Amino acid sequence: MVNVLKQALATKLDVDLMSAKCGFALEQLMELAGFSVAQAISKVYSFETNPSILLCVGPGNNGGDGLVAARHLYHFGYKPTLYYPKQPDKNHYQNLLKQCQNLGIELHSDFKKALGSSDLVVDALFGFGFKPPIREPFFEVLSALSKSNKPIISVDVPSGWDVDNGPLSTNCIRPEMLVSLSIPKPCSSFFSGKYHYLGGRFIPEFLAKEYNLDIPKYPGSDQCVLI
């Protein structure tokens, strides 16, 4: 049984990973996380039957993971597109967006139209740092996704859920796939979808012991594991 990490400890784990203690850069962690999300998607949804993937991208690190996933999905043979309404001016996020645009990945301005033409939706709006309330334009997006019958893949935490306590209302989104990163968050116990993957194969053993993390064995060279 994989254990979970509450919001405060998940934040501390990230700080430790990016400190001199572990030596990771944010860009590295984002790249590894985004790749693991793309790989998990490819294990369940083939590009032959689900070619069009809309990635809903937020302004924080979760959104950065989504941008990385979009790039890898393109190279895996999918046709990813982006809905990215609030773009931070930080250089790293702008570079990730540029990498997607250089591949011809379309950036949508009309969310409802983009949703209607997609086979799958990746929810990369809010991560484990989320605190309510949900503001526009994201409230409208999450409301539409909660009513949609398109399969949704949530990155780390289903957007709009409380990280520790799960769905905040009965009309929250209900993803078909959840890709937890590093270690599942407590809200994952409320996940009732079909596929729960763990991604982010980068936690050193000494740190896992320090946080008392029960990390499952990743198969072969995979960067994600079904849990």
From TrEMBL:
It is an enzyme of class 5 (isomerase). Its EC number is 5.1.99.6. InterPro entries: YjeF_N_dom, YjeF_N_dom_sf, YJEFN_prot_NAXE-like. Pfam families: YjeF_N. Binds 1 potassium ion per subunit. It is found in: Cytoplasm; Mitochondrion. Its main location: cytoplasm. It comes from the Eukaryota. One of its GO terms (cellular component) is mitochondrion. (6S)-NADPHX binds at N61, N62, G63, G64, D65, G127, F128, G129, F130, K131, P132, P133, D156. K(+) binds at N62, D123, S159. One of its GO terms (molecular function) is nucleotide binding. Keywords: Cytoplasm, Isomerase, Metal-binding, Mitochondrion, NAD, NADP, Nucleotide-binding, Potassium. Its cofactor is K(+). It catalyses: (6R)-NADPHX = (6S)-NADPHX; (6R)-NADHX = (6S)-NADHX. Residues 10-214 form the YjeF N-terminal domain. Belongs to the NnrE/AIBP family. Catalyzes the epimerization of the S- and R-forms of NAD(P)HX, a damaged form of NAD(P)H that is a result of enzymatic or heat-dependent hydration. This is a prerequisite for the S-specific NAD(P)H-hydrate dehydratase to allow the repair of both epimers of NAD(P)HX. This is NAD(P)H-hydrate epimerase. It comes from Smittium simulii. The lineage of its organism: Eukaryota, Fungi, Fungi incertae sedis, Zoopagomycota, Kickxellomycotina.
